[in-house]
Amino acid sequence: MAFVLFLCALHCVLSVALSFTTTTTPFVPSSWPIAVKGPYLNTWQPGSSLEGTLSQSALAFWPSLEEETDWTCIAVVDSTPYMIMGVDRPQNVTLANQTAVSFTATRMSFALAAGPVAVNATFLSPVTPNDLTRQSLPFSYFFLDILSQDEATHDIRIYTSIIPQWMFGNAENINATGSLIDSTDFVGLQMQMQSPQPFVEIANHAQDVIGIFAMKSSSNVRYQIGSDLTVRTFGINATGLQNTVELSIPTYFDAYAISLDLGSTKGTTEPIMWTLGMLRDPSMNVSTASGSNQLRSSYYWSNFSTISEIVAFVLDDFDAALASADAFDQMIMNVSLSHVDGYPGLLSLAARQLFGTLEITVSKSSDGNWNQTDIMIFSKDMGDVSSSGTSGGTNVVDVLYAGFPAILYLNPDLCQYLLRPILASQVNNGDVVGQAYAPQNLGSQFPSTSANTSQHNLGIEESGNMLIMVLAHFQRTGNLSIIRSYYPLLKSWADYLVDQTLNAGTTSLSDGITSFNQTNLVLKGIIGISAMSSISSANTVKDDQMAYQTIAQQYMQIWLDGAVSQDHSHLLSSFADQNSSGLVYNMYADKLLGLGLVPSNVSVVLPPGSPCMMDCSRSLGCNPNYTLLCSVQASGFLSSYLIFPKATF
């Protein structure tokens, strides 16, 4: 049941697709996830019509799809070059024919015909929520499987290259330097900016990234860094790449290329694999409640000393990554509601989006050693998911809330790592600081955070969200650490809800709806108060437990009197306004926590005109994030009705 909220991470990446001749499984989204393994390795491909053809469309960086991250792959078969992936195809290169596309929760696969051979191109972005080292590594794999279609042998060479725009996007005035990583085990090409700027973003690209493109060494593997036209020409003709690094050409026109000569063959017996990564250190600049700053590193650095060690591990880990990806994909396909048409596909599309926003970090102790007990996770709001103007924000509370049940389902221990930075930002030397309500985020300048104490109009929403998430984490783990450490702070937010919930007025919800005295918002506040009762019980503060539960029950009766239409046909969106209606999705939290506040005879009732609620457009006053919450409370036809339109185009 909890996993249904996984879809809230999906947001509106889905759209109506144009005509598409390639066979697609399970459906055609507006964008395909290609390499999605962190805030700065987050590349997608347009998925509709001609743009969905791997050999005819440019990959792009999310959320700025104008920021191209070109990646070229050409298969030379019997001296004839075929474009597998990329744009700006030379005239002497033939387009490979794309025949099928499929995706799972961890990979994208494109089936193509390159003359007499079949090529299956796969992009793997592992999702490993129970392994912090692997999950924090910002690397994706690209691999090919090749098979002769006429059972004859063919001379086959594979050329593939990336460009520096993977680091900095379309900014032509940024200079970068390329180099070869010193290793006999692999060919590793490294690119980094000549003048890196820590914790600075331009068009969502971090200005301190080190890019890595690598492949295991063999006698048939060659490389070259240089002008893209020159490098590509060498790569696809009989000369081959030159094993050189050219530094005298403009950065914007560089190509970082690695090729493999398969010789005369009927196909591959194991995948041909490359890896692409984007490294940074330190990764987060955290402003604390005391005003000091803490530099934090991505978790993987606590297990490695050099870039060479990291690249070697990633390449050697490919088989294990494939096995874990298979297991994760199968788990997604078997979740509850998997019988609902389109639902597993939606979960599969959302998985990388959710985990691709996360920066898992550790700190160093005063002696300079890694402190692996001090884990914090920072999530970047990529593309204003919250609908409240927080694009680029860090640990945006309502965005975390939308994806929180997915984290609870996959690894509830991660929840405290996401909540701790928010809680810590509001307490200084044991004293609660900031507003009477929970903050909206940790600032809007990822990868730098602030101890945000500014005013906002989401006090009921965010305070309720935080109390619900804290209790949900405790219920799944039995871990009392954040409750005991931050009980006075949690109590202050609950007291705010007691004072303000029944007087919501024009206080906002994050869904963008601004009507007066919203029943949905008031319900969130009541559930937050009840959650505080359970938190108090867990912390053995009996007086608080009884007081908050009594108030929650009293408020719930008031809510029932004003939230149900006079004819009992539907729930009202504004108190006592018989002309209002809406899907009161916040009932979900009552079910998630098992509070039993909402009577069993009060459930999601589709209001008049509800088909419009299925539309992704915010201008219609709805959002698929919140519509899908209601599917948890529904069953049978209604559950399918709420989910199915998201996966049919």
Automatic annotation (TrEMBL):
Keywords annotated in UniProt: Signal
Highest rank taxon of the organism: Eukaryota
Signal peptide range in chain numbering: 1-19
Domain Glutaminase A central: 343-602
Pfam families in the record: DUF5127, GtaA_6_Hairpin
Provenance organism: Schizopora paradoxa
Glutaminase A N-terminal domain span: 106-334
Cited PANTHER family: GLUTAMINASE A, GLUTAMINASE A-RELATED
SUPFAM superfamilies: Six-hairpin glycosidases
The protein's name: DUF1793-domain-containing protein
Gene Ontology BP annotations: carbohydrate metabolic process
